Amino acid sequence: MSDVTIEQMGGFVGAGSPGGHVHMRGQVAWSSLSEGDRAAVDRLFAAKKPVNANLFYRLTRSVGGKSETVDVLTEQVPPALAGAVQTTLD
Predict the structure, then answer these.
(1) What's the CA gap between 70 and 21, in Å, rounded?
(2) 48 closest CA partner among 82, 29, 76
(3) Which carries the bigger pLDDT value, residue 23 or residue 42?
(4) Range of 72's domain?
């Protein structure tokens, strides 16, 4: 694995919505995550529980050349990933 991309979706400004102008995303190298954070991310992808919330995060990573994505609640995101999110406007 190389990187984990994190995107904040929804919330007050509707970040990440189709056609939206506000984007809240970041990228973290897998190698820079601690063992605990890697294990937490692995558990999130393994669980793949549906998220029904106004504000959530979408995590994407590449494993074996294939991209996989999971939506997770805000409180489930390891701080190392949440801290990488930056807001941009188009």
Answers:
(1) 23
(2) 76
(3) 42
(4) 3-89
